[in-house]
Amino acid sequence: MKDFFGTKKFKILIVLMIVIIGVMIYSLTKGGYSSDSESVFGVVLEPFQKVSNTISEKVTSTLDMLFNAKKYYEENQQLKETLNEVYNDIIDYDKMARENEQYRVLFALTEEHDDYVFSAPCNIIARATNDPYHSFTIDKGSNDGIAPYDPVITSTGLVGVCYEVSRSTSRVRTLYSPRTAVGVTVLRSKATGIIEGDYEYAEQGFCRMSYISDSADIVDGDIIVTSGSEVFPASQLIGTVREVGIEDNGLSKYAIIEPAIDPESISTVFVITSFNGQAE
Amino acid sequence: MNIDVKRKKERRNTVLRWIIYMLLLVVEYVYMTTTAFHWRSLLLVIPTAMCIAVFEEPFDAAVTGCIAGLLLDTAQGTLIGFSGIILLWCCLVTSLLFRFYMRKHIVNVIMLNAASILIQGIIHYFCYYAIWGYDPEAKIFLHEFLPVMLYTVIAVIPLFFIIKFLVEHLGAITENYIEEKSDDIVRE
Questions:
Q1: What homologous superfamily is domain A124-274 in, according to CATH?
Q2: Among all residues of chain A, which has the CA nearest to that of B101?
Q3: Interface touch B100/A63, C-beta < 8 Å
Q4: What is the complex's ipTM, to 2 decimals?
Q5: pLDDT given at position A39
């Protein structure tokens, strides 16, 4: 054994050790930066470390899936519940925001028309299938003070009239319906007439104004508003004149009116449950 | 067997054996640096280098110990050469002891391995934790270092038999001769 300590190999080992100690001392003096020798060692071991990392990731994910499947399942269920709660919150928020906007409009309308009594804002919950006159159902009924023939408006103008009222819903007939007859006047000239729905015009998105005096001053682009009656309050916007013509009998005029409100594009309306001059 | 063929075969065996040793060390290094096993990752390069030292020449054993130590330094993030020097001496002494004084028995191997692992662990703990006052109650040593040391010592058993198997099958070729009794042979 003693012989080994006298051999050349032992001297080489001593040199190796001295080199290593030198490297260590040099590394210590670098103050946090890796020394060249460490860098060289790092370069040599880099591919192995990459392999090690790849194995790490795969093994970790596989083991993780195997051992934590139950935990992840429960976590997933919990997250689903949380997500549903968040969705419900978003829906509630959206509903509240919409309601807020509706009440804002309602407030403005109430300020504008002191004599009007409005129902709560009504949402359109259904539209009549294949109805060329675009009638629809709202989510308020007699419980909310709505009665048949109450006028239905938006902040823009008149939409139609309630014609079938249940406790919690009401059906609304629009201006396109031939059964809706509204007394109207031309805002500029005060010429009067009656708006009636017509299938042919309804298809094109128009309605007809009849019973206009032969001498009445009415031209394209005139604004039409309600004249006021026992059913409809005055000064509610109906639409604009698109075409004026003479009736077949030659005694009166007619006008094609483009309604200001497209019933297909609205989702909220207000029902006027009472106004000055309304029939009891 | 022809002496040239025997030498050639032995040389090939030696090369093959050392390639397997190095591969084993690299695989163990990959295992040690694989984060999936980071919780109580065994320091397998120590018993492997020590078991190699049991069967190999002192110089080869010392160099292997040094390489294993450098791998351990990289894996543990200690100063390069820190474990290299420790294992260089541990492997050298182990090789010399088994060469001149000790039997290559599993119990002896476990004892020497335990001593080496303990020396490396204590020096590591002392230099990186104790002297900085990070662990006044020695909790890190008791809960982190000791279990790892214990499990690493247990890992000596399979590693010893793997190395022994390699040495027996890829080591020096021994030829057995049967000596026949003959009256013609005159012994003095």
A1: Rod shape-determining protein MreC, domain 2 (2.40.10.350)
A2: A1
A3: no
A4: 0.74
A5: 66
